Structures are given as C-alpha cells and as structure tokens.
Amino acid sequence: MTKLSPLQIERLKYQPKLPSSLQNGVNSLELVEGSATQSVRDQEQIKALFANTYGKPTVTFKSTSSASKSEVKNVGVILSGGQAPGGHNVIAGLYDALKSANPENKLYGFLGGPSGIIDGKYIEFTDEFINEYRNTGGFDIIGSGRTKLETEDQFQESYNVCQKLGISAVVIIGGDDSNTNAALLAEWFVKNKTGIQVIGCPKTIDGDLKNEQIEISFGFDTATKTYAELIGNIQRDANSAKKYWHFVKIMGRSASHVALEAALQTQPNITLISEEVEAKKMSLSSIIDYMSDIIVRRANNGKNFGIAVIPEGLIEFIPEMKSMIANLNDIMAELESDPSFINATTIRDKFAIVEHRLDDENAKVYNSLPSIIKEQLLADRDPHGNVQVSKIETEKLLIEMISSKLSELKSNGEYIGKFSAQSHFFGYEGRCAFPSNFDADYCYSLGYNAFALINFGLTGYLSSVRNLTAPADKWIAGGIPLTMMMNMEKRHGEMKPVIQKALVKLNGPVFKQLQDNREDWAMNDRYLFPGAIQYFGPSSVCDITTVTLQLERNKELASV
User: Fold this and answer.
1) Distance CA 251, CA 87 (A)
2) 52-67 pLDDT, tens digit each
3) In terms of CATH, what superfamily is 220-430+508-533?
4) How far apart are CA 49 and CA 518, in angstroms?
5) What three-state secondary structure class fits 476?
6) Catalytic residue among 206, 221, 439, 543, which?
7) 127 is a catalytic site residue
8) Which pLDDT tens digit goes with each residue over 232-246?
9) Could you give the CA distance from residue 242 to residue 272 in angstroms, rounded to a whole number?
10) Which stretches of 456-486 are DSSP H helices?
11) Strand blocks (E) in 105-264
C-alpha cells in the first residue's frame, strides 16, 4: 500500500452519511412511482428516438420493515469525462450497496473511461482495493476518458464485454454528455432485448447538470470551495500589498455557476457572468468600459488594487466573439486539410489566411485581437470541433485591453491611478481535491442509490438524491428518467439528442444576490476569506452546503 498523508489516513476512517431510507440496505426498500415524465423540449423527436425508455415515471425509495432477497448481480462502472471530487465515493457507495445486498455480487470497473467497456479493459473490485480510495479526490481508481458511446459498433462491443463478464447493469458516472450516452446505451440495450440495465450519476463541477430533481451535480461543492479559498487568499494579498489588480479566470465553459458561487463566497470587486453578457448583448468594448469604470473610480479613492472574477467561457458569450468563433469553427474544419494553411511559413501567414476566409465583420473582430489570442483561437479543437475556450487566455485579453483603455483615459486627464495586473486561471486545482464532507456524503449516497435503482430493475435512470440543505438522514433518494432532461441540439452540423445544460438564471435568487451587492462590493472591500475546506469540527462549518444550493432551495421551500 502506498504511504498515505496524515489527512488521507484520517479521511479513510470517515463513514459517509446516508439518507434514512437507505440506511437499512437496498433489500429493505419500497419503490414509490411518481407521475410519468416527458423531455424538457422537443418531445416528439425525443420520444421517437427513445421509444423504449421514454416517458417513465420519477421514483423515490422508502424503507420497509420486511427484507427481500437479492439475486446475484454483476455490475460494471465507468468514470466518464473530466474529474470531479467525490467520484471514488460514488463507486464506494455502489460497491457497499451491492455487497450488502448479496455478498456474491461483483463490481467491475472499466479502465480509462467508456473506452474500457468497448475494449474489455477492467478490474474487479475487492474490499482491500476500494478501501484505499474512500473519501479521496480524483478518478485514479480506474481512470476516466472522453470516448463517446453513440455508435452501433460501440454498443455491440459493450454488449459483448458485458456478456463475457456476466454483467447485468452498467453505471455511468459523468456529466451531461456522458449521461446522454448513458441514455443512448440504455435504449439500445432495451431495444435489443439484452437484459442489461444502465444507470447514470450526475457529475460535473460546472454545476450545469441539474433540475428540480437533481439539485446539484457532485463535485461542484468541493471545487467551488477550493476556488473560493484561493480567491480569498489572493484578496488578502491584494488588500495587504494594495498595488495589484488580480484577474481570476475560473472553470466553467457553458455556464457561470462556478464563478457565481465563488464570487458569493468571497465578494470580489468585479464578477462577470457569461449569461448576463449574452442576455444584455454586451460587446467586448462595453465589458472593457464597465471594468475600467470600476478601476478608475477605485483609483480616485486611492485604491489601485482589486479582484475580478471571470468565467472560463466568457469569450463565447460576447455577441461579436460568438459570431466570429462560430464562423471560425466552420472554416477551421476546412483549413485543417488545406495545404496552404498547413504549410504556411509563419503564424502571421495563417492569420492572413483565416481573415481572408472569415466573413467581413468576423474578420474585423479577429483582426482586432492581440496576436496571442488570435493564435490561441487557432489551436487544436475539442471533440465537438469547437475552440477550446479553456486555452483562450481571456483574462490576459481583458488586462491588455483595459490597460490600453486606461492609457487613453490617462492621456485625457480622466485617470490618475496606477494599473498593475496579475492573471490567474483556476481549473485543475479544484477537480481532484479531497471531497468536502458534503460531497463525500452526497457521492456515497448517489452510488448506494444507483444500486437500489438497479435492484428494482430500472434502466435509463439518473440517480437522484434531493432535499440536500437538510441533514443527510432527511435526504430523499430516488431516480429520474434520463430522457426527462433531454432536448435536440445541433452537434457537428446534425441535430442530436442531448441533456440540456442548466445555465445561470438571471431572474433567479443566486444571480440576484450578486446583482444586489455588486456596487457595494465594487467600491468597498467586503472581501470574505473562506479558508481551506474543513473536515473536522462543528457541522455548521464542516457540512455547510454552497451558497447557490442554499439560495435555490430556500426559494423552492418558500414557494411550497
């Protein structure tokens, strides 16, 4: 066994808490069906594509005094997509539920993500092996990957491997894309009468996989607390040195939940929200004007320092940038095989080729950008063929443009301050942190609950644990059909079924909390310093949930 740190030794001793309905094991449960469901949009198309799994009811579990016998079941588990704190506990909860139901049950872990089930690469979990990973961060127990399960050949290969191992159920732990693949695999297994079930678990630190039944995706709690600690540390430094503006880009491409939550925990001077930028059709220049105005007003009060929090995906939400990037994505698909582009001698030659191919307005936008940003926009595409926004140094783009704006204002006598900026990007720092007590409990419950769904013969469901602002024993365990969260979207030029991303609601209580305090936080230093995640001590410190979840749940409860 690898030598462990003192914290890991103590965390291995932690016994995660379960909802009361699950505490007597899955053999002492009763299934309660809710009403039938439909997809969030495009009902006819989704129903046609998922003819065998569409429209199923939501379900919840309640404990019973009688115990049933559980038949032997072999289960496979896949970690899919980017890492998120708590993934190991989902597997631990699944393993413990499976073994308590019947000691002869087996759990197989497919290695390297979805490719493991296609290629037949796996391990069988044992007590000794899984006990080393309880309450730890990361996905290193079996590794993860981004292979998509979406083709007939992949489904057939997955079935062949399951047949070989006697697997009757597969649990896919992932985000919206991964659980879309879970829904497709579940439909194929039912359509082809394989007898193999598929259950999903909601993972993504971005926080964009949620609805009324999925209050939060796992990992969001730990990641945002990790980022908030780092931002708090920087704020303390800024308030001490009083000479730097810190621009902090923070993970979250399509949704700004992470940036918003980190801001509510730390109260920086400036927080940009991508969804607001898009809704207000804010141009890049208007964003620069907004940020520069705060910098100038603070400088006039003798404060040449501050903190700005910027969501990772901001650049794609600025109207002219969004148009240019969409145009660029299309032409890059052609240029990747164009000899004139491939063999271009210098990067400036590549810039010229791209500008010539772009539409006139988009070419102007592209040409106006600093060379470093133009080059980053031409970097390798993501699996969908799109710009990898995490590689676009938006924070440096803003610093450079604000610096130019302030120089212009200084020459006009409208600015007398000093502007020195530092840039940061927080992404990987939060993906594999030791899970908070909340995520340790929540993830363990999600895994335990996933086997309960399997034990009742369900397929095409997402493990759901709700009522999360209450103590863990009051949490509500159950499941929702994956098709309930789906709609049709264009991917690679084709309309495909995907789980709809949950973006920041500008009329919701979480954004309103920021909006109501923005001006105060801009001009006054109301910095909060959350400090490191606490694992031992009073529940009010160690088990506290995110501000986002508290505000959203309070609104829901108030409306009941």
Assistant:
1) 18
2) 999 999 999 999 988 8
3) Phosphofructokinase domain (3.40.50.460)
4) 45
5) strand
6) 206
7) no
8) 999 999 999 999 999
9) 22
10) none
11) 106-110, 122-124, 167-174, 197-202, 245-250
